[in-house]
Design goal:
heterodimer; A: 266 residues; mainly alpha; 11 helices; 77% helix; elongated; B: 317 residues; alpha/beta; Rossmann fold; Alpha-Beta Plaits; 2 domains; 14 strands; ABC_transporter-like_CS (chain B); antibiotic resistance (chain B); AAA+_ATPase (chain B)
């Protein structure tokens, strides 16, 4: 009964956030404009100079673009919560007899829906520039599933940071410092094996690399000509990705909830 | 007689800053308490403790007979909060905002919608009901925020600076709305920086400074403490100031204050305009050229100066 109530409260909050996507469609446009530009930039400008054994760069690139897109998409969770604090909306929510978890559950859920929309748009973009799925529909679906699961778990980390810094501007700067290395010191746009030694180790153990490789494999965008990875997470990227999802949720769900209970405006 | 709000020795510290320093307060059921104080006096912190947003470090508080810490969830069902920033969602329509709040009070779909329409009509927002709040004026947003606090017909209502930042016309409108609302017997705790606002709306006023209640009473009682009416007079020269001072001395009911540099005289009086006219006649008889003369009612700053020995704005952070 209590759980049902919490779910109902969460869906009320999620609905509120989704109305925003409908009313301010620019938001969706801008959250896809940047990744689309990345696709064009890498596919046509940088791509020519990046050699991937056994395949076109476009095929290699798209899984990385998907990972980048959902990570950036997940930051909306943090900036949205920070904005709600600044505007006093969190104060209002916290004075209501609603489930304590509802605001965070609602927020992360609506951002997941937003991310799913963006992934669909990015997949269409990919198909236009020559990316193809070489696996079964079920595997392709699993690839999307892993990307979104990871984004969902990452949303909770962003929620915690957003509630901690309490200002959308500060959040945007703070999350950038974090998001940039985790997105680019990875196998998203280049082969991790080709990075210099220290960066290579970081890239190999970076959760984003596991997620990217999992998606790449499940979409069938790998080639036997590429060197076999010699670290566990990249040998078992699907398992490693799911592991990271669990780890992120275990750490950041309690942290975000704790911070929410303390969150007041100013 | 029961007290709807009770606070005993509330203390809240933020590092070295003491926001609440042993706050005691009792608000009788069905009355309006005005919590009056400058910025940073602890008004908002007190409201946040009462509305379960913040845990106090020491002391205890009950609202509607429920402990703010132990029965927080139960308590939230019987309170309404309207804060100082108008916590409404810009992207939702007025109706959607209220319906969301209704659903979160667990009113049920039908009842929630009905209540939202009811409140929109009552707060004169019917025409704007289905437009996004983004296009609302400041006064409309405040009214919508207040409507949000009333969705569940709470028995205790907290209004944290409901008119701060509003233009004078919207402020008057807001006062009408609040007056209307409290006729229904709701207990209200209203915080404000304006004596005028507390004067008009509140049955009882508690003056708060540095996290403690330093005076309590009706508006008239507080004004009497401050000294009531004053007569103020400005002249051009210090010689005229001295003449004015001796000519008016017997009209003063307390010590006169004169500012030699500004050639300005302030004196407590009783009798209002009769005394003012008499003062003007005497100045005329003495051929003193009066630059400015008038009656002044006590302001919040006077209350503060008298009660604390420091000006209200010194407290601003």
């Amino acid at each position: 009964m209590k759980l049902l109530q919490a779910l109902a409260d969460g869906s009320v909050v999620a609905k509120r956030n989704l109305i925003k996507i409908k009313r301010v469609p620019d938001l969706l446009v801008f959250s896809t404009a940047a990744p689309i530009m990345f696709v064009l930039l890498f596919a046509y400008v940088f791509g020519g100079s990046i050699e991937i054994p056994g395949m076109d760069y476009q095929e290699f690139l798209m899984a990385g673009i998907f990972a980048q897109t959902v990570l950036f998409g997940a930051t909306i969770t943090g900036s949205g919560l920070a904005e709600d604090i600044t505007k006093g909306i969190i104060d209002r929510f916290r004075s209501l007899p609603m489930a304590r978890s509802a605001v965070l559950v609602g927020r992360t859920t609506s951002d997941l829906v937003n991310n799913a929309l963006v992934v669909v748009i990015m997949m269409i973009t990919g198909l236009i520039v020559g990316w193809r799925i070489h696996s079964s529909p079920l595997e392709a679906l699993a690839a999307v599933g892993i990307l979104l699961l990871f984004a969902y778990a990452f949303s909770w980390a962003m929620a915690w940071i957003g509630l901690l810094v309490r200002s959308p501007e500060v959040f945007n700067n703070a999350s950038f410092i974090f998001i940039f290395p985790i997105t680019y010191i990875a196998n998203t746009f280049v082969q991790a094996e080709k990075l210099p030694s220290v960066l290579r180790h970081i890239a190999e153990w970076n959760p984003v690399s596991a997620v990217t490789l999992a998606a790449r494999e499940l979409f069938g965008n790998t080639s036997p000509l590429q060197p076999a990875p010699d670290v566990w997470p990249l040998q078992h990227p699907v398992l490693a990705s799911l592991g990271w999802v669990v780890v992120f949720l275990l750490i950041f769900v309690p942290l975000a909830n704790y911070q929410y209970k303390r969150a007041v405006a100013r | 007689m029961t007290d709807a709000i009770v606070a005993e020795g509330l203390v809240k510290r933020y590092g070295s800053v003491v926001a609440l320093n042993g706050l005691d307060l009792r608000v009788e059921e069905g009355t309006i308490m005005g919590l009056l104080g400058p910025n940073g006096a602890g008004k908002t912190t007190a409201v946040r403790v009462f509305t379960t947003l913040l845990d106090a470090d020491e002391g205890r508080a009950t609202v509607a007979g429920l402990d703010v810490r132990k029965n927080a969830n139960e308590l939230r069902k019987s309170i309404g909060l309207s804060g100082q920033y108008a916590a409404v969602d810009d992207n939702l329509t007025g109706f959607e905002n209220l319906d969301m709040v209704g659903r979160l009070y667990h009113l049920g779909r039908g009842r929630s919608r009905e209540r939202a329409r009811e409140l929109l009509a009552r707060f004169d927002l019917e025409d704007a009901a289905d437009r996004p709040v983004k296009g609302y004026s400041g006064g409309m947003r405040r009214r919508l925020d207040l409507a949000g606090a009333l969705v569940a017909k709470p028995s205790v209502l907290f209004l944290d600076e409901p008119t701060t930042g509003l233009d004078p016309r919207s402020r008057l409108g807001m006062w009408d709305v609040i007056e209307e609302l409290v006729k229904g017997g709701t207990t209200v705790l209203l915080t404000t920086q304006y004596l005028e606002e507390a004067d008009r709306l509140a049955d009882q006023i508690a003056v708060i400074d540095r996290g403690r209640v330093i005076a309590e009473g009706t508006a008239d009682q507080l004004k009497d403490q401050v000294g009531g009416e004053r007569l103020e007079l400005s002249v051009a020269t210090s010689q005229e100031l001295a003449t004015a001072r001796s000519a008016l001395a017997d009209l003063a009911v307390g010590p006169m204050e004169s500012d030699e540099r500004q050639h300005h005289l302030t004196m407590p009086i009783t009798g209002g305009s009769t005394v003012l006219m008499e003062a003007i006649r005497r100045m005329d008889a003495e051929s003193v050229k009066v630059l400015d003369i008038g009656l002044r009612r006590p302001t919040l700053d006077d209350v503060f100066l008298t009660l604390t020995g420091h000006h209200a704005e010194e407290e601003e952070k």
